[in-house]
User: Fold Nucleoporin Nup43 isoform X1 from Aythya fuligula.
Amino acid sequence: MEEVSARFVAQKISKARWRPLPAAALQPPDIFATGSWDNEDNRLALWAVGELGSGEYLGEPQLLCDIGHDGDVMDMQFLDQERIVVASSTGSVTVFRHHQNNQTLSVNQRWEKAHCHVDQDTSCGGAACTGVICNNPEIVTVGEDGRINLFRADQKDAVRTIDNADSSTLHAVTFLRTTEILTVNSIGQLKIWDFRQQRNEPSQIFSLTGERVPLHCVDRHPNQQHIVATGGQDGMLSIWDIRQGTMPVSLLNAHEAEMWEVHFHPSNPDHLFTCSEDGSLWHWDTSTDISEKPSFLHQGGRSTAYLSHNTINQSVVCAWLNNDPTKDRMEITNLIPNQTLSVNSLDVLGPCLVYGTDAEAIYVNRQLFS
Assistant:
């Protein structure tokens, strides 16, 4: 079986997300969603991978169903097994429902102009909704207008809106806890917001020193909520410990162009994945001391780079912040040896990786750790 299966889809893919598995599931994920951008007719699509009931391997991803989407898909998250929340460049936020009995998608709920620029006439021109994060039933969105919305699925009006939460563009958002979120913006700042507080001010602000490099993406460590990874315009990976200081713990040289997404592996968070405008997708592995691995593991089409202690501010506690002397190195593998156009999105779940590119293709690797 090929390690990576590809499918050309005649659409530039802006987002790719695995459907979450039921709590007790043992099998690998088998359905993912994609969203497109910069096409005349953008679409949200659901795809199946893996094996059919007969045990026959599907090979390339198979289209289950798709539906038109107004505007570019800017971000996308599964709310649960059946519902997907999609952020649009038009400023709207839409919840789509996947009907598994007849493999169709329909609009379940929509908040029009959740994000907008208000002009002098107080008419509202749409501002792109740049990021969405879900913790069912809650949905948080951020946008170019610097606004933060807290929605609840099946409720028509926003539960909470923080207008002008930021004077610059908010690019991404993640939950720290059920009541706290963290946003990143276009001037290199991270801000923590506590929904229990009535005032519309961040409870903490962190920033990259010196140049105000726009941050494009953020992810929180799944087990240690104080550890956060961000990526931005300069392609650098920053690791932050939000318990201490206001600056990153580590700044790691990474991609040669914008980093579009960063994801800790949800169940193996010693592994982290980043993708970039430069056409690369990197697997950062802090799980073992590389020097103990047999050298044959480094061969093949993979470029492996090592970072010594000094490069990384004394390595990376919990692997990412650790001062453990055995962690001499971090292994970095580019999973796309022949890179071409931008890799806009990736998602990891279990042994599976999915990613989408401007080369109008989606790729699935189902043996990530083999």
